[in-house]
Amino acid sequence: MENHTVVTEFILVGFKGKPEMQSILFVLFLLMYIITLMGNTAMILVISADPKLHTPMYFFLKNLSFLDICYSSVITPKAMLSFATGNKIISYNGCATQMFFFSLFGTTEAFFLAVMAYDRFIAVCNPLLYHVVMSKKTRHLLVAVSYFFGFVNCCTQTGFTFSLSFCAPAEINHFFCDVPAVMKASCSPTFVNEIVLLVVCGLIIVTTGIIVLVSYAYIVATILHIPSGSGRLKAFSTCTSHLMAVSLFFGTVFFMYAQPGAIASLNQGKIVSVFYTVVIPMLNPIIYSLRNVEVKEAVIRQFRKKLFSY
Q1: In whole angstroms, how far apart are CA 43 and each of 49, 138, 279?
Q2: Which of 97-111, 230-244, 261-275 has the lowest mean pLDDT?
Q3: How many Å apart are CA 308 and CA 288, to the nearest integer?
Q4: Global confidence as pTM
Q5: Which tens digits make up the pLDDT trace of 144-160?
Q6: How far apart are the first and last CA of the chain?
Q7: 51: cis peptide before it, omega within 30°?
Q8: By C-alpha distance, which of 9, 294, 45 is closest to 168?
Q9: CA 186, 188, 194, 200: dihedral to nearest 10 degrees?
């Protein structure tokens, strides 16, 4: 692809404020990043170590935890470095790389959440066929397909965005190289790119959203036909954690990318983007562990195992 840029680096404006504000942001991002790494790593280790969690549902959850670590690591360390040192420079290639991997992991997470909704649909609506439908081959295929669509989207978004011209000084009104913010920094027309952003992100959100909604429509209908109240509660409890994760992720992503004027509302978008780039990867393992009896029991078993091994 021809490179039209006349700049070799960008300035990430980030959050304007006094030095004390930057120090507070550094501490907050550091704490959230540590919790993200510890929580998701613990989730991966517990699921891997406990045979009772070697099921399709926890296979997807383990992959989601790995994805959240990658997702957060693309953004948070660079942002913390900027807050700590005041150096807001990012190279042209570094910006393109950050956008590429952020789009890859973000899109893949959307498809992961849709896959997990389908997994819950099979588990609740067709429990006798669950392990047949969600075979090891199928699980790996669904993960691969999720990454494939993530790869297609990140190539599209990064390719279109960095085909634009950029004139010095190129300031990006964000704390990372997000697509709308980088497009806003361009000195060439961005109408086509905005349409591509709206259409592609809209298709991703609509497609994954339909899978989630249809899956849960069948799940709710099936649960309502369960005669006992305890049976309905047990069936629904297997879905509540995922519903919370889906609501958090899709709500913020829709606000950022799937509405007209996404580029014009960058200042408001910076606040929202902190939520889905830093907060959600931190919250996911907390949501899935605190509201999941099997995970809590697995943690206790592993703790007792380690305790009595000494």
Answers
A1: 10, 22, 17
A2: 261-275
A3: 27
A4: 0.88
A5: 999 999 999 999 999 99
A6: 59
A7: no
A8: 9
A9: -80
